[in-house]
Amino acid sequence: MSNLKPTLSFEQGWPILQDEAINKVILLVEEGHTSNQFTSEEYMHLYTTVYSMCDNNPAGPEAQKLYQQYKKTMEGYVSSKVVPSIQGKKDDVLLHELVKRWNNHKIITRWLFRFFHYLDRYLVPRRSLPSLQETGHLTFYELVYGEMNDGVRDAVISLINREREGEQIDQALVKNILDIYVEIGGDTMKYYEKDFEESMLKDTAVFYSKKASDWIASKSYEEYMLKVEECLKDEERRVQSYLKDISKHKLLEVVEYEFLTVHASKLEEKKQINLGAA
């Protein structure tokens, strides 16, 4: 079987897939059409095209060439359409555009998965390759977040701090951004923890260290402890609203530590003053 030529060569099949599947999907999504725009006959035609290019050797050279071309296509789309649309944007505008682009990217990946599903069924497991969805998500992560994660992360943290100061923020927007980290990681927390949570916890420590210092200097002990309790409840609500559950224990631990450290420092300071007076 492996020595038989495919029914349809790569050179014959790829132009069909590029024009009738890939280019059409991208054009539809870019124009804002998110619903199914393909008939069952079109689906069958495109799936059969892939099948005919690989059927005699599902994990052979033609199938591998098709997989690599699929990957290049995703890279080309993200580089030419997604990255330019996000570059130069900041703060809330950046976050809104990123959510829009990620949703578009998922739609494109989902449609193309159906056309190229034969590769996922036969080539991917036999060659231990990333699935088509994983390839699409990793492409987005490497090309978009590789360049813009600092700006995205800082914009989200800025929104969180504005909420801590009493401002109303778009919690759904923050949640949507944090969901991207999880979805890109295949529903794991590795990108959420590495690219967002680590910096968020450090910033939280700085934020509450300053608040604790201000409050312990201006409030009674009872008022100070009420503030501690209030802030802990606020952070719990933040986890319920948009942060991930994995952050809850670490976040509360950071807040408690900063308040107690400042409190202990103030007590020690008073002790030293009293000793000096004695």
What is this structure's SSE topology?
Blueprint: H1 10-30, H2 40-54, H3 61-86, H4 91-115, H5 117-127, H6 132-164, H7 171-184, H8 190-218, H9 221-241, H10 248-277
Helix pairs in contact: 1-2, 1-3, 1-4, 3-4, 3-6, 4-6, 4-7, 6-7, 6-8, 7-8, 8-10, 9-10
Family: Belongs to the cullin family.
InterPro entries: Cullin, Cullin_N, Cullin_repeat-like_dom_sf
Protein name: Cullin N-terminal domain-containing protein
Structural commentary:
With 278 residues, this protein is mostly helical. 81% of the residues lie in helices and 0% in strands. It is built from ten helices and no strands. It has helices at 10-30, 40-54, 61-86, 91-115, 117-127, 132-164, 171-184, 190-218, 221-241, 248-277. It is elongated. The mean pLDDT is 90.
Features:
single chain; about 280 residues; mainly alpha; 10 helices; Cullin N-terminal domain-containing protein; Cullin_repeat-like_dom_sf
- Low-pLDDT segments, ≥5 res: none
Overall SS class: mainly alpha
Distance between the termini: 96 Å
Tell how many strands the DSSP assignment holds.
0
Mean pLDDT: 90
Shape: elongated
Order of helices and strands: HHHHHHHHHH
Radius of gyration: 26 Å
Number of helices: 10
Biggest beta sheet attributes: none
Strand content: under 5%
Helix content: over 70%
Could you give a short description of this structure?
Belongs to the cullin family. With 278 residues, the chain is mainly α. The protein is built from 10 helices and no strands.
